[in-house]
Amino acid sequence: MTTPPRSGSLSGEAEHDALSVRDLRVWYGTERGPVRAVDGVNFNLRPGEILGLVGESGCGKSTLGRGVLGLLPPGAKAAGEVRFRGENLVELSQKQMQSRRGPEIGLIFQEPMTRLNPLMRISQHFEETLRVHEPDISTAEAKHRALEALRGMGIPPTRYRNYPHEFSGGMRQRLMIALTLVLRPSFIVADEPTTALDVLVEAQIIRILHDLRRNFDTAMLLITHNLGIIAEACDRVAVMYAGHIVEEGKARQVFSSPAHPYTRELLRSTISLRTTGLHYIPGAPPDLVDAPSGCTFHPRCPDAMRVCPDQDPVEVYPTGNQRVSCWLHGPEDRIPEGGREPLARQEIDLADEA
Ligand SMILES: Nc1ncnc2c1ncn2[C@@H]1O[C@H](COP(=O)(O)OP(=O)(O)OP(=O)(O)O)[C@@H](O)[C@H]1O
Ligand code: SF4
Ligand SMILES: [Mg+2]
Predict the structure, then answer these.
(1) Is there a single domain that holds both residue 206 and residue 305?
(2) pLDDT digits (tens, 9 = 90+) for 195-229
(3) CA-proximal residue: ligand 1, atom 16 (nearest)
(4) Does residue 307 belong to any structural domain of this protein?
(5) Which residue's CA is minimally distant from atom 1 of ligand 2?
(6) CB 295 less than 6 A from any atom of ligand 2
(7) Residue 213 lies in a domain
């Protein structure tokens, strides 16, 4: 085991980070109690770095992305630290956050039509977006910047005065990305940007992400179910389960030798050309109002041990480039006697019912 870097960090010194997230917690108030959708998350992003975020549905990926941007719905609360350009974004007011979003921080959603106004031409969308953040920009300059952004997305200038409904779904998605990029943000959260797109458009968007990084040093948190995209586009990958990042490391390393049983099971359940039979992880992610004790994955984990339901796993660094929260990797001195004995299925079921 190597010496751990600073807690929750795999990218070296804090001052070089584009973004640093420390102990971020986000919860939704509900009648049944708080839904702990993000429960003590740490990660860093360097300029030009793309971090992929994966995990089953309901594990808290979108909540994390929105929490970082201060874009939570009413009733949600956040605590912890999201450090960006010397400020803790969690402490900023909605108004202060609004002024940071756009020119500094961008967001790409899955649903393009929610941001495109059907009554406005594409040209008006670009002019309005640019004017909000750069009030003095001339119409000619706005057009120049818009056409440049559209060209980058493979949309011809002849479509500049079209309305959103005149575009296909894939084109609308690219339009929305162009609208985000026209402001040249230094950090972007992209939540499922290629879901529902065909593979050609998907490939095009991945190319754009690479260009962005190369040309503008843009850092990105890329949320996706598509592990192929992570492998293609991301430097590092973080695996999320029940509001926690359970493993993080270089994408290639995590994919070739996953350290956490959840990562391993998630990779096994992905369909590939070499897939011969379908594998699925038994059970479902837990109810985040009342998550299982200890390691929240223990009711589904094929490797569960006696220590797992009793104690929260500790973050360890099996290699200098990988961090994982799983008792399989120690630390040995925190595991009580007999703690490494396998947890019998019956014990897991009883623990669930308790
Ligand atoms: N507005 C809300 N009020 C209450 N609970 C919510 C709200 N939004 C999300 N949740 C809950 O928070 C948890 C995390 O949801 P989130 O949407 O972040 O998951 P996700 O990983 O993005 O899932 P998916 O892959 O399906 O997009 C889930 O248990 C969800 O039910
Ligand atoms: S801590 Fe235990 S239950 Fe959790 S993933 Fe590791 S082995 Fe499985
Ligand atoms: Mg989501």
Answers:
(1) no
(2) 666 666 677 777 777 777 777 788 999 998 888 88
(3) 60
(4) yes
(5) 326
(6) yes
(7) yes
